[in-house]
Design brief:
Strand order of the largest sheet: 1-4-3
Largest sheet: 3 strands, mixed
Distance between the termini: 54 Å
Number of helices: 17
Helix content: 40-55%
Order of helices and strands: HHEHHHHEHHHHHHEEHHEEHHH
Number of strands: 6
Length: 486
């Protein structure tokens, strides 16, 4: 017979196992944060902090001295590792100078166009994706997965000015999914998937199929990496994540969803909803910059040249609002985004997102197409990183669900999400630790800048060990005004 002690131990173990979805993921996330902080060391001032508060946040962020992007920061090695191949010509990681200026100018040219045309294209691609996936019945989907083919086709159309063939869509989606899954630490990198898209773009460039003038200072291979990184990685990933956040917010706030669906022409209200969504769930967690000169502001300590500044969007967006944790689109009826602690696309003075004009226009169009066909419903957790890819019920608008059946489906979605959260959090700890250590071992950014200047030109002679940097770069590791670890 089983002793009372053994039975009690088994019961306690069973209770612990059954309750793990409620406590284990948070514990693992905390452990992962500690591991990452330990690996990355004390590099970086996390802003805002007690010295450089939210009232001076944008002033520091927009200062001309906060212009360095990759060279001199260990954090850059991790981002370059995640964004490979071609991180050295990725627009977000180029250092300021003529090469960056040309790349940024070409990107804006490709992204530009009449709002009506861009809106119509986004609506058309959304409609086609919904029709291709639709069955006329209620479905459980991952919103990020639902939207990724939409933006793959949309940005393909901008780059090639032609309809997106199925082969290209598959390559773009596979590549974008691989990058974002690695960034979320839910999967390891699969470089063969990424390289297949590179080869496709090289073939198209060799055939002269890109109708736009591309940066002339880049080799053909670098031009392929530029297109791949800027449009078929960052643009596709960020727009898919943005739409997942917006649609999940609507799914979890029925009154807001009903109002948006009932008044599709009300751009003002939908913009308020988008502003509040981006405030609570900014696409960027922490953006880092390296000071290229001493940064001095009135009444504040001087930040030395070579310091790594880590700008926390969630921390900044949580300041300056009453009841900041509450979702409240109405707050924007009397609040200007320009005057609020609100920088969903960065700050204008320091490399803002090049799609800051385009994104709201096309997101409104895509949202209207979704809500014209479906009622959204989701009880899952909503975090900034949405590693679960935003599970949601799509209920055909002309076939509403009986309340009891809706309750059953919501319960099933909740149970599945919490169960997956346990395994996913453990995988994130494992994969994330491995990739951080691998990035620190290979040091892609440090190695590159040991051999090239900030314009990509090879350096003459031995420049020292990769990643040793100059004295000022080394000073960044121990800034005299450290915030929390980045």
């Amino acid at each position: 017979m089983v002793s009372r002690t053994t039975a009690a131990a088994l019961a306690a173990g069973g209770a612990l196992l059954l309750s793990s979805p409620a406590w284990l993921p948070d514990r693992v996330v905390a452990l992962r944060t500690k591991v990452f902080a330990r690996v990355n060391g004390d590099e970086g001032m996390l802003l805002p902090d007690a010295v450089f508060g939210p009232d001076r946040f944008q002033e520091v962020y927009g200062h001309p001295a906060a212009a360095g992007r990759s060279k001199g920061a260990a954090l850059s090695d991790l981002f370059w590792y995640w964004l490979a191949p071609g991180a050295d010509v990725h627009q977000e990681h180029l250092e300021a100078g003529p090469r960056y200026d040309e790349v940024a100018r070409r990107t804006l040219d490709i992204l530009s166009g009449p709002s009506a045309r861009l809106s119509a294209a986004a609506a058309r691609h959304t409609r086609q994706a919904l029709e291709a996936a639709g069955t006329g019945r209620v479905r459980a989907v991952r919103l990020r997965d639902l939207m990724m083919p939409v933006w793959a086709e949309f940005f393909y159309g901008l780059v090639f000015e032609e309809p997106c063939p199925a082969e290209a869509r598959r390559l773009i989606v596979a590549h974008a999914e691989d990058v974002v899954n690695a960034l979320k630490c839910t999967r390891m990198r699969h470089m063969r998937r990424r390289n297949r898209l590179t080869r496709y773009l090289l073939r198209r460039l060799a055939a002269g199929d890109v109708p736009h003038a591309l940066p002339a200072g880049l080799t053909r291979r670098q031009q392929a990496f530029y297109l791949q990184g800027t449009f078929f990685n960052t643009a596709v990933v960020q727009m898919s994540e943005a739409m997942a956040h917006l649609l999940l917010v609507l799914a979890q706030h029925p009154e807001t969803q009903r109002r948006v669906a009932a008044t599709p022409a009300d751009d003002r209200y939908l913009t308020h909803v988008m502003n509040e969504t981006f405030r609570l769930y900014p696409l960027f967690g922490v953006a880092h910059r390296i000071t290229t000169a001493d940064l001095a502001l009135d009444g504040l300590p001087v930040i030395p040249a070579g310091s790594v500044l880590a700008f926390s969007y969630p921390d900044y967006h949580a300041t300056g609002y009453p009841d900041p944790e509450r979702f409240d689109p109405a707050r924007w009826e009397s609040l200007s985004a320009r005057d609020a602690h609100h920088i969903p696309f960065g700050v204008a003075a320091n490399r803002p997102c090049p799609a800051w004009r385009l994104a709201p226009v096309v997101m409104r169009a895509a949202t209207r197409e979704v809500l014209a066909r479906y009622v959204l419903d989701s009880p899952v957790g909503h975090t900034r990183s949405i590693p679960h890819r935003a599970p949601c019920l799509l209920v055909p608008r002309d076939r509403p669900l009986p309340r009891p059946l809706r309750g059953v489906l919501r319960t099933a979605l909740t149970v599945r999400d919490r169960a997956e959260d346990v395994g996913r959090s453990l995988l994130q700890l494992l994969f994330g630790t491995w990739m951080v250590l691998e990035a620190r071992r290979t040091r892609p950014a440090a190695t590159y800048f040991a051999r090239h200047d900030t314009e990509g030109r090879p350096l003459d002679g031995d420049q020292g060990l990769p990643g040793t940097g100059t004295g000022r770069e080394q000073a960044a590791r121990t800034c005299p005004y450290p915030g929390r670890r980045a």
